[in-house]
Write a structure and sequence with these properties.
Blueprint lengths: L2 E5 L6 H15 L2 E8 L12 H17 L8 E7 L2 H11 L4 E4 L10 E3 L1 H9 L4 E3 L11 E6 L11 H10 L2 E8 L12 H4 L2 E8 L3 H12 L3 E5 L15 E2 L10 E4 L4
């Protein structure tokens, strides 16, 4: 894990989040891209060229933001991009060879009841880039206990498990697996391949309506430092992803980081 991207919004948690990203990146020897994406909507006949103004203001804002943080020797690179959020973010991650996005739950939302705001929700739901969602004001600490929750252990996508593998290796983590049998269960879904099996200390089987409900039932017993789930079209966040905004009352694990792996099927 050599390249980490941190999108910056206007939340009051932005400084705390960037400090976590720096501390996390330092453990892996990674560099951090601090990024802001802006879009321009101009009226017909407008004489003023606003692109350069917005870019200059955005860069100034990001440089001031980084200046408030103890970078601890980590290489921090500031970038601004113009375009639609998801398309631009995916292009930027590809160009910068990003291994992981570190997300605030609420980059712009000020509503206390919100866990995952619209911007972060879109990034998690609509991109296929591995993401680590870090709770607000969360202080960096090693991820010793990891709970991986899956409704299917079938892994077809190459390198899908790489972020989990690198985190486990870095912290010498204990990884427990929760296999949740839902109504969509197919024969063979719980056949764990060797790449995943070698990482697992303990496996628990559960039967629930959704993977999300299985996690709610079992995560307290595991007391993980990190919850790891998989982004699928109809996966862990089936209940939650009907809207890009996710409320805290609907996600009781909002006090620990959540690693969202890219689709593995």
């Amino acid at each position: 894990m050599k390249s980490i991207l941190v999108p910056v919004g206007s939340s009051k948690n932005a400084e705390s989040h960037l400090q976590y990203a720096i501390d996390f990146a330092r453990a892996f020897g990674a560099k951090v891209y601090v990024v802001q994406i802006y879009n321009v909507y101009t009226k017909a006949g407008t004489m003023i060229k606003v692109d350069h103004i917005l870019e200059r203001e955005s860069l100034s804002f990001l440089n001031g933001h980084v200046a408030k943080i103890d970078t601890k020797g980590v290489e921090v690179i500031v970038r601004t991009f113009k375009g639609k959020l998801i398309d631009t973010l995916e292009l930027a991650c590809k160009a910068l060879k990003v291994d992981l996005i570190l997300l605030e739950p609420r980059t712009n939302s000020i509503k206390d009841e919100v866990y995952l705001g619209k911007t972060s929700g879109k990034i998690v739901k609509q991109t296929n880039i591995p993401a680590l969602i870090v709770p607000e004001s969360y202080v960096y600490r090693p991820m010793i206990y990891i709970l991986v929750a899956l409704k299917s252990a079938i892994i077809k996508k190459k390198e899908a498990l790489q972020p989990l593998k690198e985190i486990k290796n870095q912290y010498k983590s204990i990884v427990n697996l929760l296999l949740v049998k839902t109504t969509f269960y197919n024969e063979g879904d719980f056949n764990v391949n060797e790449e995943l099996a070698v990482m697992i200390t303990k496996t628990t089987n559960s039967e629930n309506a959704t993977t999300f409900q299985g996690v709610l039932e079992h995560h307290q017993a595991n007391k993980p430092d990190l919850l790891c789930v998989v982004r699928r079209k109809r996966g862990f966040f089936t209940k939650l992803w009907e809207s890009n905004t996710i409320l805290k009352k609907d996600f009781h694990s909002s006090t620990l980081p959540v690693l969202v792996l890219s689709g593995i099927k």
